[in-house]
Write a structure and sequence with these properties.
heterotrimer; A mainly alpha (273); B mainly alpha (270); C alpha+beta (355); B: mainly alpha; 2 domains; globular; C: 355 residues; alpha+beta; Rossmann fold; OB fold (Dihydrolipoamide Acetyltransferase, E2P); 6-stranded mixed β-sheet; 5-stranded antiparallel β-sheet
Chain lengths: 273, 270, 355
Amino acid sequence: MSKMKAGPLSLRLSAIAYLAFMLFIPLAAVLQDGLRSGFSSFANSLFNPAAWHALKLTVWTAVVMALINAVMGTLTAYVMVRYAFPGRAWLNSLIDLPFAIPTLVTGVMLVILYGPQQVLGGWLKNHWGWEIIFAPAGIILALLFVTFPLVVRTVEPLLMEIDEDQEEAARALGASSWTTFWRVLFPAILPGILTGTLLTFSRALGEFGSVVVVAGNIPFKSQTAAVYVWGELESQNRQGASAMSVLLVALSFLMILLVDWFEKRRGKTRVRS
Amino acid sequence: MSGRKKSTRYYLLALVLGYIAVLILLPIGALIANTFAKGGMTFLKVLCRQDVLHAFVLTFSLSAVAVVLNAVFGVVIAWVLVRHQFPGRNLLNALVDLPFAVSPVVAGYMLILLFGRTGWFYPLLQATGLKVVFSLPGMAIATTFVSLPFVIREVMPVLQEIGLEEDQAAYTLGANGWQTFWRVTFPGIRWGLLYGVTLTFARALGEFGALFVVSGAVSGETETATLFVFRAMDERLYQEAYAVSLTLAAVSFFVLLAMEALRKRIHEEA
Amino acid sequence: MGISVVNLTKRFGEFTAVDRVNFDVKEGELVALLGPSGSGKSTILRMICGLETPDDGEIYLTGENATSLSIQKRGVGFVFQHYALFKHMTVWQNIAFGLEVQKFPKKEIKGRVEELLHLVQLQGYSHHLPSQLSGGQRQRVALARALAPKPKVLLLDEPFGALDAKVREELRNWIRRLHDEFHVTSLFVTHDQNEALEISDKIVVVNQGRVEQIGTSQEIYENPQSSFVAGFIGPVNVLRGKVEAGKAKVGEFEFALDSSFLEGHTDAEALIRPSDVMLDTAATSSFPKGQVKRVSFLGWGIKVDIVLMDGQIMTVHLTKERFQELQLAEGQDVYIQPRDAKVFTRKAAAQDYSI
């Protein structure tokens, strides 16, 4: 629209200025700092044993958690959309609860529940040898809690689009429940599952508040990448912190672009996350 | 649900409900139980501690700042992104999600890089005598950063749906850009905006990682509620930690209920 | 001159949507911009309003060059096909909007809104929201809203496109009434020729971005200047033939050549209105013969489809009385006397006449 540029021009500039200050500049600062001493120095900081272990731990716990989430999130979405049962409305609110609770509080709750001095935690450790707190299992639990709504809420709308008629038609044609699920439902909700899982994974890479309480800061045992950055900052090792930060930002940004590209392929420009 | 074995249904339901119970309900239950283990009076006494009260005031203030800034700029950015095509628009759109993706620690670190002693803006700060890092302005920026995308992401689809024609009609009737925005566009986006504000507030309330890095966590000065909880856990002041945690969780829960009510409102209006 | 459009051109990439369009609308006239989908008529209207910018040409509103004026400054009232009412405002607030924004005195606003509500007969609805109104009511509010701030010019973009037939007819009368009341220079876009013929003072026929013909309803109907216009306005038979010995020979018919004839034209088209044909069953008739293929009842009359000797089909409209007189039945032979025909000739071409 041609003539409407005058007022909105100042508006657009202020919007861009805000974004520049809030996003571009911090991003540039991290990139510049991490790569300041050259690429080899950057690589060295990343491949020192503690950093490397933190990275591996972060990635494998995130993958395990993402897989569990993909399955349970999808099942939860299915139950929410297709079944009617008493208390369904409450369950709906409960699903969003992890989004509302501060991550630190999540960590505190898990420590209360599974701490080695606690009833449950103690029992688990003595009976089964399971360590939750200060161990990878705790990290996975914390991540599961914090990212629970992501897969559910991305799969639900897709499920709602599919009429129950389609399922019934399949069954009338002789398909078993399992076949119906695999061949009718699954292909339709797969994009949602993938998007949700990607978002979950991306979120898990950077999770701090819950993990630092549950897993602590024990290098080589339960220190994730984000906690590692914090550790480096505490010990005044800026280079180490920067290098890991750059990697984390790059990974996260890659995830966003992936999700975006994926959604565009499906024909939707992502307007809502 | 005819034709499907009843037992599959029950197993599935049991699995999902069981999972949610163990994953979500159990920890919350544990928190509540342990908070009130020493009685309701202890709970209230803890909440009345000087440093706790100060922490809450700080948390709410920072969240308020984040809400105001992100509400105002969020609406503008949403409008720019939806109504205009320009080179780099898609990149900008993706960039808006950055605060979601970036670890809070890294976010805090970014601010230190910018405003710390060797930071890009340090000379400017020296000149004006403004303190950012280890001080309130820095914490405000951090809180605003991490809660940036919510309003934008909630308003954009609403703007998209409303479409252009009402705006155009307003122009033909003589209204300029501002008048059109306030009288025609804004009423259409208000519920989306409110929902986004609610999400922003909940996120800001719970921010920890970035604040941990940026604030220096000086009790009574730059210690928010979340920072207090961390210190309390560290110093084994468990009752204190639990009480403040539960309060934060409860406030968030009510914010959540407001979210649900608003979401219903948005769907009704659609 | 209320509206003057000079050499107006608009391109979308490679595609020329509007190609050097020229026409005028006199002060107080109600003119229709008529054409098929994609003819560019909406684009022309939007350029006059300011919602689109022309690539070339000029627009004059009440004598003033408005080509580079902003939408707000043009003083143009616009009615959208899908109403574009402000969803969150009441009927009253919608109509008052333009008056408030243009800073009319409060008392005048009240009087004007009431006047318009009365005119569109929605007095009891001032506190209703658009969602509580029917399509026809919403469009009446849209009309009232556009007229409230006393625009110099009123533009309507397929205003009845979204409504069903009965409501459309009612609203046509509304437009005419409002126009008679306010005499605002008005231009409306439509693809419905009945609408154009019925209510407009003048019609501008547009096709593929160009003006085909400008004239009154009668002129356009009776003297179409191209086969497109003839085919677009009103029902018409298109019979094909050749130019032979200085005449147009179409099947068994022979027509005198028209002013459109040029040396070298070999193909001819005869356009005959179904109501311009006389039929006879007397075997002694000297007129060309055809066979009745199908008889259909149209409510107000009878439609008879006739197969001509060369295989072309001709449609004839008869009054019920005439049909009774003739007692036509399917398969019967009938003799055909066209009373008026428009003949168009051109060079032999691969081009298809498709109406």
